[in-house]
Amino acid sequence: MYKQSFRKPDGRQLLLYSREPIDPAIEATSPSPTPVSLHGAHMRWHPLRGEWVSYSGHRQNRTFLPPKEFNPLAPTRSAEFPTELPQGSYDVAVFENMFPTLSRLALDAPDLPGVATMPATGACEVVVFTKDPDASLGRLPLAHIALILEVWGDRYRELGSRDDIEYLLPFENKGVEVGVTLHHPHGQIYAYPFVPPVPARQQCEEKAYFEKNGSPLMSDFVKREQSEKIRVLYEGDRAIAFVPVCARYPYEVWIAPKNRLASMAEMDERDRSDFAKALKTVLLKYDGLWSRPFPYLMVAYQAPTDGEPHPESHFHFEFFPPYRSSDKLKYLAGTEIGAGLFANDAFPEDKALELQAVEVNLE
């Protein structure tokens, strides 16, 4: 993998990645020559939930469903309309979000009576999977998907080495049903100054399981799915994809390395190659299920970067699709949002059968 760092006109970092050498003379571009003000961005403590809430008023002005000719994630075509991506030869681009929820520049927090506050420090990066606006992650060549996995691993190492970062969350929102505001194929990375609630709860369960059983919870979970096979969608030498027995969403899917790896930074070439096959298989099965683009939220859960050893951690991807059938969305309502108890309208085994029946071509 080749990597080249640039500085945008507004001061943000741009990283270009490729399977071929990158021209260091590429000129970085930005939609605006001046940085967006982060004035007022901070967090407030929610005493009943025991968690932080972020406040970022500047994000109200971020780009929302622009016409194709004004795509800010496409390579720049003219000096009159500079975008986030420069011209040149490269495969993947990563840059600091122009409208971040968390930032190294968010240094202040207001004093409020009765509630704790803190600066919204951290990082938010955009990962542009390809320069092609009409592509999708699942339609990319396997070697390109493997490169994206390597990029995520690189960002885990670099951002995770910062003293103010304790957790990295790579994710992709695909489809307007899950709130996408830019259709160009891309994901994001949020780097938090603490382990946020969902992964923190997972880490708590994983630590308790490891202390009791001497093995990682996710590793044993994978072995059981591997043994039962009834919900498995893909199994290779290094990776496995399956509908989990405990799925909360009808078409929920998990992907994991078969052997314990704490993060994508620990993957070798063979790991990435097989994981790319698992990932492409899942995405093509999703799109082939109803012969149309399939929306989802994809999240990667990895070990915290808090400087502590995490032998309990076994990284994996989770997919949360919003549909429960071809014409019905799975809305989160009273019991899910109000109580935290998910009500799944379908059995995981039945949905696994539907996805297993979809034939895919990885070439």
Corresponding CATH architecture of the largest domain: 2-Layer Sandwich
Report how far apart the termini are: 22 Å
- Total helix count? 6
Give the total of beta strands. Answer: 16
Question: Can you describe what's shown?
Answer:
The model has no long low-confidence stretch (mean pLDDT 94). The protein has an 11-stranded antiparallel β-sheet with strand order 1-2-5-7-9-8-13-14-12-11-10, sandwiched between helices. It has 2 domains: 2-195, HIT family, subunit A (2-Layer Sandwich), CATH 3.30.428.10; 198-356, HIT family, subunit A (2-Layer Sandwich), CATH 3.30.428. It starts with a strand and ends in a 7-residue tail after the last helix. The chain contains 6 helices and 16 strands. With 363 residues, the protein is an alpha+beta fold.
